[in-house]
Amino acid sequence: MLAVLCGLGTWQVQRLRWKNDLLARIEASERAAPAPLGAAAEPFAKVVATGRFDHAREALFGVEVRGATLGGHLLTPLLRDGHPPLLVDRGWVPLERGRPVDRPDGEVPVTGFVREADRRDWLSPADDAPGRRFYLFDPEAIGAALGLPKPAPFGLVALEPAPAGARPPLPEAARSLPRPNNPHLGYAITWYGLAVSLVGVFAAFALRPMGDDSA
């Protein structure tokens, strides 16, 4: 049991180092100017891609409640000459839309951060392909459901500065890169603390006074 607790604590220390490195890369990416998108891209890299939005094949991704309003993220293919289609998360939209959605025409530059594909397993939610509602970011599966040629194996989450008005236009794009939570230090302290407690309990048991068995 002591080996198991120490092993879990060491694993969390390794996860802590990985997460700290990831957060540092995200902060550096957010401060940097966007780079032109290449064939391969590092997750969370800030890039700019140029192409034409295929609004006829837009879909809804995920479920998110903002305030008391249920919505999801507008997922639109970006068609690029000489490159595979790129699935762009343009931002949050409500299911009941009381405001118009901006759908730019022609070739446009899109600045955002790279989103890697999700891994599908037996716990993954089922998509509603006929209804164009997707709950797992799987570019290959989404592209096939939308009738696209094989898309890029990653996506792009559009970034836009906060608008001057009180009510942002639709879709409401991301304003900054995400910051994954980092609870690993607390986990490591917990596991190592349990290991120390186990040693203390064993020491108290091993060093306790022996009873008088002479009677």
Describe this structure in words.
There is one protein chain. The chain is of the alpha/beta class and 215 residues long. It has two domains: 1-33 and 178-209; 45-176, no CATH class. The protein is 28% helix and 26% strand. The chain is built from three helices and eight strands. Strand 4 (69-79) and strand 5 (86-94) form a beta hairpin. Helix 1 packs antiparallel against helix 3 (184-206). The two termini are 37 Å apart.
Summarize the structure.
Helices cover 28% and strands 26% of the residues. It has helices at residues 2-31, 139-145, 184-206, and strands at residues 35-36, 46-53, 59-66, 69-79, 86-94, 107-116, 133-134, 154-158. Strands 2-4-5-8-6 form a 5-stranded mixed beta barrel.
Q: What distinguishing features does this structure have?
A:
215 residues, alpha/beta, 2 domains, five-stranded mixed barrel, 3 helices
Percent helix range: 25-40%
Largest sheet report = 5 strands, mixed, barrel
Radius of gyration: 25 Å
**How many domains comprise the coordinates?**
2
Instruction: Tell how many strands the DSSP assignment holds.
Output: 8
Note the run of SSEs as H and E: HEEEEEEEHEH
Q: Uncertain spans, ≥5 residues at pLDDT below 50?
A: none
User: What general form does the structure show?
Assistant: elongated
Q: What is the rounded distance between the termini?
A: 37 Å
Strand-residue proportion: 25-35%
Identify the strand order in the major beta sheet. 2-4-5-8-6
Class computed from helices, strands and strand pairing: alpha/beta
Average pLDDT, rounded to a whole number, is 89
